[in-house]
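Hi W., the calcium ion complex you wanted:
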Amino acid sequence: MKPLAQSFRILPHRITALVGGLVCLMLARPWTSPAAAPATPNIIILLADDLGFGDTGAYGGTKIPTPNIDRLARQGLRFTDAHATSATCTPSRYALLTGEYPWRKQGTGILPGNAALIIDQQQTTLPGMLRGAGYATGVVGKWHLGLGGKGGPDWNGDIRPGPLEVGFDYCFLQPATGDRVPCVYVEDHGVFGLDPKDPIQVSYGKPIGNEPTGKEHPELLRMGLHLGHDGTIINGISRIGFMTGGHAARWKDEDKADVLTDKAVGFIQRNTNRPFFLYFAAHDPHVPRVPHPRFVGRSGCGVRGDVIVEFDWCVGRIMDELTARHLAGNTMLLLSSDNGPVIDDGYDDHAAEELHGHAPAGPLRGYKYTVYEGGTRVPLIVSWPDRIRPGESAALVSLVDFTASFAALTGQRLAPGAAPDSVNVLAALLGESPRGREQLVEHDGLRMFGYRDGMWKWIEADHRPKPVYGTNGALYNLAQDLGETNNLQAAEPARSARLADQLGAERRTAPRP
Ligand code: NG6
Ligand code: CA
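Structure:
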């Protein structure tokens, strides 16, 4: 029998929990799941860079072999209406890690490689929240959220603040994009493999150093360039921006998938005995597309297809590591992409000529940089063998919802105002409810906005000098017109006005300085 005093100690706690639970149930939106016991599975986000809705076999692609992603889809839930918040990288990743729509905050557009960290150290973050739940937290791969304080990072010194100051215990980063300098990795607080006698300098203004640039020496390039990308030549590829020094630390593009996957596997191995959260942010299939020689020609769809095969290999290697360590059953794996696909993104790599009928966005209209569904609707596979039954879900969910959903999963309470745009869609992510969120703001990652209300889609009036979308706005009924071909704005003025108002109201709420 328990001593009386202990029972008394427990009782008030139980009453508090019961009352708290009832209040939560009353406040909860109708489609959220009933409060379940908190769980702490390992959580791994496998985020590809610019992978399209139609790029994998799991999403109907028939040209590019993706056996590991398809295997993951067979054992998990395949979402057909999941979204990144924005159709470019920095804003999309900002939202994923903070639970806040990026356009609420200044300075969340595509960042140069020497930008300062754009996440406030006081802000609630997904990794910080999970760390509070007892997780070991790590990020391996593309960061692109800036590093260092005002003025940017000191590449030759202590690089902080960075991921370790906003919730991660470990980081191994490509600081920005593969096509931006500096072309070096950062591990924790310093450049990986830097020789102090060969310091790094970076410029996004005037050219620096004596190394050849793509602009002046196109004959030295192994792939031509279309737009920009004519700065310092590193590894035979000219980049956006200029850099000098750091030779021993420079990455080899063809080894990047191996290097990053090794670091991810190392993080898993170091944390097998406690819950861990790994954000694995692959470089593939972003430009420059430079597959390791063993993947060259593997897709039959040119270099873009080959680097998708390479990403699929990374996924398989991580899945196999989990199996070998007996972690597969209790690990939640979420595979997605930061934005829609793009074919020509600044290098002449023949990606367009070698599509051979492959449709990167599948049945969707638009690509990266657009506010059509192809810009933000991304693959999302959620697998957790011990808990989630395999299947398909049409629930509307966004990557911005991960913070609130995983807080609910792990029993963490978010402070008022934290992760303000994150909706708890845990029941949908677990396949326990067919419903996710009802509304969603879509953003091209540059300047244009769209809005989803159920299956209705509104695109704001395009008042730019060269409009791409309707000058009076555009309304689509995605239930009948997934490809956004039939603009109903003129036929349905009242509905159009209502959605425009709803979008306006969303954009006006809780702006951050
Ligand atoms: C653009 C680059 C593009 C790519 C993109 C970022 C030009 C002309 N284009 O500015 O190549 O790097 O930024 O991609 O410079 S993202 O996936 O990180 O958003
Ligand atoms: Ca991207």
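The radius of gyration is 23 Å.

W.
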